[in-house]
Design brief:
By secondary structure, this protein is of the alpha/beta class. It has three domains: about 100 residues, 3-Layer(aba) Sandwich (Udp-n-acetylmuramoylalanyl-d-glutamate--2,6- Diaminopimelate Ligase, Chain: A, domain 1), CATH 3.40.1390.10; about 220 residues, UDP-N-acetylmuramoyl-L-alanine:D-glutamate ligase (3-Layer(aba) Sandwich), CATH 3.40.1190; about 150 residues, Mur ligase, C-terminal domain (Protein-Tyrosine Phosphatase, Chain A), CATH 3.90.190. The chain has 16 helices and 26 strands. A hairpin with a 3-residue loop joins strand 9 and strand 10. The longest helix is centred in the middle third of the chain and has 16 residues. It is globular and about 75 Å long.
Length: about 475
């Protein structure tokens, strides 16, 4: 419970109608969740406009409304707050309502196209192992200490986000690590949060169905770094040309990392196989259970951020050597018959290319790489032919299959993928729409020593078809098929 005037701290207010000296029971931006004495924030969203639901919110008990457009005849029993940006106001109001919990934590945000989940999760595991209480917001799962909470979005909405941060503070957490998606930055879900650090991984082709242009996508990511306070750190991957762009006009302390060239934090791969790789980080050798250049970069980011947060070098390296890959990220499943199955969340061209390149650096001559890949429905269509082309160029055999078709016809998605295959590579392609059958066929085609890559869904335990989420786990499907061979 908070007074309206306390909730409005920091919000740019154009005008107020009614008294601010009343108590609010909660904050909602979904009119269906409004209860008695709630504050309703009318946000113009991607698919709907909260202003269309103000009357519904009032009917459900809202006693105050934040909006950008006032009604012609405002109800005088309601407190009306007009602002120029209700999305930003929602984040600030939610933070104020829950007592600005981020100010009581060492909150670190991780953004970029690929690597967010791995870096955020490994930092969470790192600081747990170092003896701290921690929280995590990730695509796979949210955690308050070791209590697991289902994740519905990469970055939760501002109300849920601040509620969970408040619970982390109540549970005595010292650190919290968060994936900051481009959607959340653009929609200002992180407004009102105080970060002690931000990490940039890379920027490649993704989410153009939402952002429309790459420049808009870049601007969304950069807005996170532009908002970092002066006493925080900005840690960026300079192997990506957009890394230094993130630092432009960024007030935070600047740090760089690289696995290719000069940077504040450096790393190179000494050796690698399917069981793991040896790295040299800042001149120190360490064996890890991860594989791939991109994971070397991810681990370097974890090392650098841990050091910037005050952890000792020796302790960081000790924990790094014992950390396991994140669920569904280059997760290796070995069969009794000597086949290596790999499940990975790669659902962008760059991520898929990185995974295939990693496998090809390790596999020996005569060993087949059989790739099973699809593309999600109701998402960026331009990457579909590119992903199919990357798979065909880097694999011995490719099975095009359904991913999460959502509301789209899976056959049409496969048609768009197949359009990216050049005539000389058509011979490599099989098309099996049923994902269960596609995985089963890949295992049937594999012989001892071969590698099977199941790409696109990673940790997901469902397949969404026409709005219905049916249980489907690539790891389960692969394990069952390998055991039955």
């Amino acid at each position: 419970m908070k007074k309206i005037e306390e909730i409005l701290n920091g919000i740019e207010i154009v005008s107020v109608i009614g008294t601010k000296n009343r108590v609010i029971s909660g904050i909602e931006f979904d009119s269906r969740k409004v209860g008695k004495d709630s504050l309703f924030v009318a946000v113009k969203g991607y698919k709907s406009d909260g202003h269309d639901f103000i009357n519904s919110a009032i009917a459900s008990g809202a006693s105050a409304v934040i909006c950008e457009i006032l009604p012609e005849k405002p109800d005088k029993s309601i407190c009306w707050i007009k602002t120029g940006d209700s999305a930003k106001a929602l984040g600030l109001a939610a933070s104020n309502f829950f007592g600005n919990p981020s100010y009581s934590l060492n909150l670190v945000g991780v953004t970029g196209t690929n690597g967010k989940t791995t870096i955020a999760t490994l930092l969470y595991r790192m600081f747990l192992r170092l003896g701290y209480k921690c929280g995590l917001f990730s695509t796979v799962c949210n955690y308050i200490n070791e209590k697991e909470l289902e994740a519905t979005h990469t970055t939760p909405d501002p109300v849920q986000l601040n509620r969970l941060l408040s619970e982390m503070v109540s549970e005595g957490c010292d650190y919290a690590f968060m994936e900051v998606s481009s959607h959340s930055a653009d929609q200002k879900r992180i407004a009102g949060l105080k970060f002690v650090g931000g990490i940039f991984t890379n920027l490649t082709h993704d989410h153009l169905d939402y952002h429309k242009t790459f420049d808009n996508y870049l601007a969304a990511k950069k807005s996170f770094f532009d908002s970092l306070p002066q006493n925080s750190f900005a840690l960026v991957n300079v192997d990506d040309r957009n890394g230094r762009v993130m630092l432009q006009n960024c007030l935070a302390r600047h740090y760089t990392f690289s696995v290719r060239g000069m940077a504040d934090y450096r790393c190179n791969i000494i050796e690698q196989g399917f069981e793991g790789m040896g790295l040299k980080i800042q001149g120190e050798e360490v064996w890890t259970r991860f594989i791939g250049d991109f994971n070397a970069s991810n681990l370097l980011a974890v090392y650098a951020a841990s050091e910037l947060l005050g952890a000792a070098k020796k302790e960081i390296l000790t924990v790094l050597s014992d950390l396991h890959p994140v669920s569904g990220r280059l997760e290796v499943i070995k069969s009794p018959g000597g086949i290596s199955g790999i499940v990975d969340y790669a659902h962008t061209p760059d991520a898929l290319l990185n995974v295939i390149d990693t496998i090809n650096k390790i596999r020996e001559g005569g060993v087949q790489l059989i790739t099973v890949v699809g593309a999600g429905g109701d998402r960026d269509r331009t990457k579909r032919p590119e992903m199919a082309a990357i798979s065909a160029e880097g694999s011995t055999k490719v099975i095009l299959t359904s991913d999460n078709p959502r509301s789209e016809d899976p056959e049409k998605i496969l048609d768009e993928m197949e359009a990216g295959i050049t005539p000389d590579l058509k011979r490599k392609i099989l098309r099996i729409t049923d994902r269960h059958e596609a995985i089963k066929t890949a295992v049937m085609l594999a012989k001892e020593g071969d590698v099977i890559l199941i790409a696109g869904k990673g940790h997901e335990t469902y397949q969404e078809i026409k709005g219905v989420k049916n249980h489907f786990d690539d790891r389960e499907e692969l394990k069952n098929a390998l055991l039955s061979k």
